[in-house]
Specification:
The structure holds two protein chains of two kinds. By secondary structure, chain A is an all-alpha fold. Chain A contains nine helices and no strands. In chain A, helix 1 crosses helix 3, helix 7 packs antiparallel against helix 8 and helix 7 crosses helix 9. The relative contact order of chain A is 0.11. The C terminus of chain A is likely disordered. By secondary structure, chain B is of the alpha+beta class. In chain B, strands 1-2-3-4-7-6-5 form a seven-stranded antiparallel sheet, sandwiched between helices. In chain B, a hairpin with a 5-residue loop joins strand 3 and strand 4. In chain B, 39% of the residues are buried. At the A-B interface, helix 1, helix 2, helix 7 and helix 9 of A face helix 1, helix 3, helix 4 and strand 5 of B.
């Protein structure tokens, strides 16, 4: 294997971590990872040498995720790409389900997908705001506002679960 | 504490947590936080969230990187592609094949238009033809080799893939986008066919490693070696096709080195 393919392989653990945090379903996350790798290796020639490979890979993964969501619009996560109103409905309906109050992953799932992606890229994957904006194809300002909303919502969730032991959703906008 | 500093906006608290502030502003924010406990608490919460995310998901980093063993039924299609590429990563190293960069590559778009797509199309047209799958059958292999070599202006032989448990069916000469192409057809033990497609493409020094693309549900493994493009096309498992691609590559090298 040449060194670029090697580089891709080196990023697999982090791509997997992100996919697993983004998608609750581990099997879907693994599919997303594999699809991303297939695309990345198939397009290795399109990767601009010297540019940030990790950001490039996350971009491919994000695009792949969006495509997949469009394909399978019945799945709840796909809804989160739609208007915010739908997102709220989606999040609220999930709130009725049993939620493990100890598990931050459960809290993540209460976030709209676009906020979740921003939070994970910044807080978990350590991408800069600029890199995150590029990966998601949005403005840096949008990264910052989504990050704020995501953190505030999760913070509220954490405090609520800490106090009451029950996950409640507060309408934090 | 210096109240003369510009007031700290929400987004700056995040930027502070995420290390996005320059040194001077960072110091200012820290000073400001010392005097504003509720904001400081928010910052601690944000940091706590980050820690919890790492705590929760970092263990995944140590999971082994390997090919899944079985396809989840509802993603069988996706899995086929995934397996193809995982296998490619794992097997290519083992077989001495290389996934090269594209320093000397023709444009990928060209490879796809001139090599991958015609190869896949020719595969679909002829491998499914029960009556005339080939123009020149295996018994006339010597004739076939001479014919395609003559028309393509290069020494070309149908590779012997018997080591891959493949029987040679025969081959044909084909018009490709702007050049002639040769198609060699093989059958496995179950009667499933795969084809090898060869044509002239790109620059004289063009070279790529093994590439992969799915085209109309077919696996296409292809590469370019000194202005010749090669493709192995089939519906067989990708790991099998990679082994075949390696054998074809080796056979083609041998033929060329004899020239």
């Amino acid at each position: 294997m040449n060194r670029h393919a090697h580089q891709v392989v080196q990023h697999i653990p982090r791509l997997r971590r992100y996919a697993r945090a983004l998608l609750k379903d581990a099997e879907r996350a693994e599919d997303l990872l594999q699809e991303t790798l297939a695309r990345a290796l198939g397009r290795l020639g399109l990767w601009r040498h010297g540019s940030d490979m990790r950001a490039w890979l996350f971009t491919i993964m994000h695009n792949q995720y969006v495509n997949e969501c469009r394909r399978a619009q019945k799945r709840p996560d796909a809804l989160s790409l739609e208007a915010d109103g739908v997102l709220e409905a989606c999040a609220t309906s999930r709130a009725d389900q049993h939620i493990d109050v100890q598990d931050i992953a459960a809290g993540l799932m209460l976030l709209p997908e676009d906020q979740r992606a921003v939070l994970l890229l910044v807080s978990l994957e350590g991408l800069t705001y600029r890199q995150t904006a590029k990966v998601l194809g949005i403005k840096t300002g949008t990264v910052m506002s989504r990050l704020h909303r995501a953190r505030e919502r999760l913070r509220t969730w954490c405090n609520d679960t800490r106090q009451t032991g029950v996950a409640r959703i507060r309408s934090v906008k | 504490m210096n109240d003369a500093v510009t007031p700290i906006a929400d987004h700056e608290l995040h930027a502070y947590v995420d290390g996005e502030l320059d040194e001077q502003r960072r110091v200012e924010v820290e000073a400001w936080l010392a005097a504003h406990p509720s904001a400081a608490e928010r910052v601690r919460d944000y940091q706590m969230l980050r820690d919890r995310l790492h705590e929760r998901f970092d263990p995944l980093l140590t999971e082994p990187v390997e090919v899944p063993t079985g396809p989840p039924a509802r993603y069988a299609h996706a899995f086929a592609r995934a397996a193809a590429i995982s296998a490619l990563v794992l097997v290519s190293g083992a077989l001495g094949w290389t996934l090269k960069g594209w320093t000397h590559r023709a444009s990928p778009a060209l490879e796809i238009a001139d090599l991958v797509q015609p190869a896949a199309f020719a595969h679909q047209v002829y491998s499914t033809d029960t009556r005339y799958p080939v123009e020149i059958p295996a018994v006339d292999q010597a004739l076939l080799n001479r014919w395609v070599s003559l028309r393509m202006h290069t020494e070309l032989r149908a590779p012997d893939l018997s080591t891959q448990a493949l029987t040679f069916v025969g081959g044909r000469l084909l018009p490709s986008t702007d050049r002639m192409a040769a198609q060699f057809m093989y059958e496995d033990g179950e009667g499933q066919r795969l084809t090898v497609y060869v044509r002239r493409i790109g620059r004289q020094d063009g070279f790529t490693g093994l590439q992969y693309r799915e085209e109309d549900g077919l696996h296409v493994f292809y590469w370019i070696d000194r202005a010749m493009g090669y493709a192995v096309i089939g519906e067989q498992p990708a790991s099998r096709l990679i082994a075949v691609a390696n054998a074809v590559h080796a056979a083609m090298q041998t033929t060329r080195n004899r020239q």
